[in-house]
Structure formats: structure tokens, C-alpha cells
Amino acid sequence: MASIVRASKYRHVFGTASKREECYENLRVSINAWDTNYVCANPKYMAVNWNAGGGGAFCVVPHSQAGKLRGDFPLFSAHSGAVLDTAFSPFDDDIIASGAEDHQAMVWRVPADLAEREEEDVTQPLAVLGGHGRKVGHVAWNPVAENVLAVASSDHTVRIWDVGQVAVKSTLAGFGDSIMSIAWNHDGTLLAATCRDKRLRVFDARSGSIVQEGAGHLGVKGSRVVWLGSEPRLVTTGFSRTSDREIYLWDSLNLAAPISKLNVDMSAGMLMPFYDSGSSMLYVAGKGDGNIRYYEYTDDRLYLLSEYSSSEPQRGLGAMPKRGVDVSKCEVMRFFKVASNSLVEPVSFRVPRKAETFQADIYPPAHAGRPALSADQYFAGQNAEPVVVGMEALFRDGPLVVAGEAPAPAQFIRCGTKPPPPETETETSRNPPLPPPPASTLTSERQLSPAPSQVEETRAPPSPPPTTATITPVVASNEETTRLRDENARLQAQLGQMQAQAGDAQQRAQRAEQAAADCEQTLRTLRAQLDDAVLKAAKDADALRAQVDAATTSVDEYKARLAKAEDTAREHERSCQGLEKELRDAIDAANSLALAAEKAADSLQAAQ
Fold it and tell me: Cα separation of 187 and 207, whole Å?
């Protein structure tokens, strides 16, 4: 008998949350209401949008610093508005781009001594990408060409930048409202975007022209888009008119209608899609709930494999590139889950196999972290497939970390190069030498009272002997010696007083530092309480919205049932009226028959 179960190598993939010591604690994740993932990652770092008081900042944490982050860990803080999105370069793990409410995007290099810095924020970006009229909500690196960055803004445009030249090469326009998400296709030639005007668009990134456009999800809460690897297929997540969460599968060559529609559930949280082209698996996580559903894409269909469930809801989610997973443990995906305003929790998805050798059937080649084209080649019209690497090398050597080239001489620092070392102050420049004290303060009592033998040897320089001149020794007078001794004693007394004052000042400074530390700790506690209160309020608001949506749906259902009952009642009323008429007719007929029978009886009696 043939099996009806669809064969799949990833049917039994399961998700596992990391241990507490492997999580990232003591964070201050942004509480901005903009729809963002809040976190991104690569094989070397994890970056999270920071809740900064005034201005904007984000924090880059090396994976070696997992655990409780120290309070003075340095931030990247040059934005004057809240940071809304960050993205690591696919070709240099030390390069990261950020977009913020100050209408700017910035490109940064993570310093090598980041973990050793103490209260010294990174404030000098490699490049500042300005010119947008409103906040920058999304940044995305081209997956094939080096130094090519897409920057989406609420001014209804997406600008394609050559970061090395700090120049805009093309502008994508035609949006009717705020841009909700952007995504490159696998070879970086096309850019898909969803918009609050409920339209899905695909652009030629270099010419700026719209290649395809169609109607997207009909809900008002926004949507997201992701490409399905090298296939000309798109997946969007969004809402229906009745607030049902949906997943649409599209043909990017024809956006007139989706290939298929999948109704997920009814909830208020945005669905965040992530696609792994190596396993052909689509991961869909809902904001405000603890579920991560994963599907397998094949034959233009999405098959639900399973669901990871947690009691901790996620505010955001970031995916590790495939070159960063643990191949030796059959890990196929790793997410970084924003579990609260102070905690990021890694979640690992693995294929349950016990083999100790490389599993080639579940690990096709993945992106190698090397560009296939330069920015000049890309904007000149050349196309190329992404550079890939065999995953067996990762099984043997561990995660693949990529770095940029040596710095090139120029008036600006190209993305992908190391910046020149910052000028550091020398000890002499920080603490210039004091001027030499007067000779009187350095002359000791023994120097002021020379021995007789020394006095006798201290004579005037030799000269021709005059006839009347005599040579006399130069000896300090008793009055001068006494005066110098008194001056020395006075200066020593002043020095003692100054040392006592310095000790008092040092004690006061220590007390002030302790008070400042206590205030900082109190402030952190209050901020944590405020963050928890805000998160609880957001959860309560989401729950109330869900209840309102459910109540609205129930009211609509009750109204429909009431209208149907009214129609039924009117039909019954009309039926009753017909029956009453028939009954009256039957009674009249019966009365007529009875009268006829009486007449017939009377006639019969008369005849007899």
C-alpha cells in the first residue's frame, strides 16, 4: 500500500531555546512603535536597537560576551533620533548599517577593542547617507554587489547607495504611503517592497522602474515581503479585512493575483517571515506571541512542518546567516529572539540526527560572504550569481567569519576597509609636565650650609695676580641662611595643607562617585520597571485589541443571525397568513356543506 505521507528531510525539525547563560541579558531594547525586528546578527556579533534617552543608539555585542552585559558597554551613538533598523554587511562582519528617525542612514565599522572599551561610545561612522525628507525605516545590503545599500524612508522613496562613493545611484519612487518592508532577490537585480497603500511592487534596482505591481493584503496593519531564494517567487504576510493573519505566495513575474493564500489565525501581531534557501523552509513568527511556524516550500505550495511554541512572547526576531550555524549539531537555523525589553534569547532549529559525519543531504552550498561584483560593475549593468561555499568546510572549521580588505587612501573611508587607528593622547599630552619649582624649594639645608672644606674650594676663577687684590671665599651669610630655612619651612607647611585638602577632595569625589553609581543603579531599576510596565501595557493593549476584534466579529455574526432570523420569521408570518386563509376557506366550505345537508334533510322529510 502506497504511503500518503509526503517525504521530507526536514519533517522533524525542532526548535530549542538556549540556556540562560547563553542569552544576552541586561539590555535596554528600544520600545519604539515602528514595525522592525529590533535585532540582527552575523557569525561574530549580535546587534540590538537601544532605548537611548535622547538621540538614537544601538548596541553591538560579540557572541563571546553572551550573558549579563555590563552597564558601561559602549554604544554606537551618532544618530540624533531613535534607531529604527540595522543590518550587517554580508561581506564584512565588522560593517553594519543603521537607519533612524533623524532622516539619515549611517555605515559603521565595529572597532576591534569594542569589548575592552569602558564608557567610550562609538560616535564616528564610516559614512553618513543623508538626503531623505523623513525617517529612515529600513536598510538592506545587496546580496551580490559590494557596498550597495538600499535605504527606505517614510518620504515614500527607496534610495540605492554606492556606500564606497557615498553617492545615490538610483531612486525607487511611486509609493502611495509609508514603505513597510523591502527585500532583495537572490542576485540583487530586483527589489520587492510592501507599502501601507496595500500594494506590492517589484523594482529594477538600477533603473528605478517598476517591473511588476499588484494588490496586496487588504488589512490596514501593514505587511512584509521575502523572496524564496533563487525562485521567482515571493511570500508576503499581512492581514485581511477581518484582521485574519494571512500568508500569500506570489509569482514575481505576474502580481495580478497570488498563487495561493493561507489563513493563519486571528491575532493583532505582525507576522515576520524568514526564508532559508538551503532547506527551502519558510519561518513565520508572530509579534506578541511565542510561536514560530515553519513551512517547506515545494511545487508552488507551502506545507506546514511544525511549530515552535514558547510561553515568552517575542517582540522581534533576527536570523543568523547560514554560514554561522553549527553544522556539527545539524543546526539549520538560529534566531535571536527579543523576549523582553532586557533579554535576547537564541533559538536553535535542528534536524534530529545522531550521525557524527557531515550530512550533505541537508546542507547544500550557502553564501560564502564574498562579493561577486564590485559596486562599479553592478551599476554598469553586470549580473552575477552569489558566491557560495560548501558547508562541509563549516563542519570542519566552524562558522565562517568574513572581513574586509586593507584601507585604501582616499578622502573618505570605503565600506569594507578598516579605518585608521584613532589618535590617542599620550601621557604627556593628557598630563603636561609642571614647571620646575623655584630653586629655594629644592635647595636642602645641607646645600644652604656648605662644609668649610667646600667653601674654601669655592673661589673666583683664576686671573693674573694683581699687585693689591686678594682672593676671598664666597660664603652665604647667616641671615640669608636663616631666611631660606624659614622659606623652606613655610613652603613645606603649605605643601602639607595642600596634601590634606587633596585628600579631603579625593574622599568627597569618592563619595560623589558612589552616590552617582547609586543614582545610576536606581535609574536603571526605574527604567527596567518602566520598560516592564510599557511591555505589559502593550500586551494588555494587544489583548484588548484582540478582544475588540473578536467582539466585533461576534457582533457581526449576531447581526447576520438576527437578520436571518427576521427573514425566517417573516416567512413564517406569511405562511401563517396563508394557512389562516385556507382555514377560513375550509370553514366556509364546511358551513356550506352543512347548510346543504340540512336542506337535503328537510327536502327528504317533506317528500316522505
Answer: 16
Strand order in the sheet with 199-204: 179-184, 190-195, 199-204, 210-215
Q: How many CA atoms lie within 13 A of 496 on its CB side?
A: 6
Of 38, 50, 33, 51, the closest CA to residue 221 belongs to 33
Quick: pLDDT tens for 30-39: 998 889 999 9
SS3 444: coil
Angle in degrees, CA 589, 591, 594, rounded to 5: 110
Grouping H, G, I as helix, E, B as strand and the rest as coil, residue 289 is coil
Question: Which residue's entry shows cell 631660606?
Answer: 484
Count CB-CB contacts under 10 A for residue 506: 10
pTM of the predicted protein model: 0.67
**How would you write 345-382 as a 3-class SS string?**
EEEEEECCCCCCCCCHHHCCCEECCCCCECHHHHHCCC
The three three-digit cell numbers of residue 593, written as one number: 356543506
Closest C-alpha to 265, from 213, 216, 307: 307
Tens of pLDDT, residue by residue over 193-223, are 999 999 999 999 999 999 999 999 999 888 9
Q: What whole-number distance in Å separates Cα of residue 378 and Cα of residue 204? A: 12
Asked whether 75 and 107 are in contact (CB, 8 A), the reply is no
